[in-house]
Amino acid sequence: MTATHAEPAGTGLGQPILQARNLVKTFGRVVGLDGVSLDLYPGEVLAIIGDNGAGKSTLIKCLTGAEIPDSGELMVSGQQVHFKRPQDARLHGIETVYQNLAVSPALDVASNLFLGREERLAGPMGKIFRVLDTKGMRRKAKDELNRLGISTLQDVTVPVENLSGGQRQAVAVARAAAFGSKVVVLDEPTAALGVRESNQVLQLVRDLRDQGLPVILISHNMPHVFDVADRIHIQRLGKCAATITPESHSMTDAVAIMTGAATA
Prior knowledge:
This protein has helices at about 55-65, 85-90, 110-115, 125, 135-150, 165-180, 195-210, 220-230, 250-260; strands at about 20-25, 30-40, 45-50, 70-75, 80, 95, 185, 215-220, 230-235, 240-245. It is α/β, with parallel strands linked by helices. It folds into two domains: about 1-95 and about 185-264, P-loop containing nucleotide triphosphate hydrolases (Rossmann fold), CATH 3.40.50.300; about 105-180, no CATH class. The chain has a six-stranded mixed beta sheet. The chain has a four-stranded antiparallel beta sheet with strand order 2-1-4-5, with helices on one face. Strand 4 (about 70-75) and strand 5 form a beta hairpin. The relative contact order is 0.19.
């Protein structure tokens, strides 16, 4: 059993959109990341898997500005970046959907899509009285949902609290895709969803990839990972144990690498 490691140079995938090199992050005596490298290419789904404590969350937080690595490099489109907060990552086109979704149940779909990025009316009403352009945001929200092929959210005026779990996930993913010009990061997007709703979310992941938007998918669900991922980054004990593909390795192989029962 062989595996490619975290620098798949020469794969013909072009310039990586997002690169991490030798990231180290410690919390006192606890090592969260121990020299982890990663490449994300245009139009691919890169899954990150690993047991609890393997460093998945720490890696994602360093990639998205929620944590600052102690050492190592981050590059976006070949340019070195230094994220000190999530807003810095967003300014570079990296959007994250965390497991808790961070949607506002009382607001409608359109308001959630523009949450924190609300648009005001043109002219004095917007500049002086700060009146929101509700019609414009609803129109743009509907256009964005149509662009993403999300057919389960036709009415953008419906409060999110009235939606199913899968539809709420779709709102959060749509918001990330609308503003994530380079990378969308999804943290356990199918957790606590039923089979049908999980399939809808996985299809949305495929649609994003088909539109050329690379996706980082963190998941414990191995069938889902092997269903949509192009490559799989396996974390173990704070390090990258291997980067494999669904074609080169089976789910059993991946679990064996992840748990240390096999080495790559």
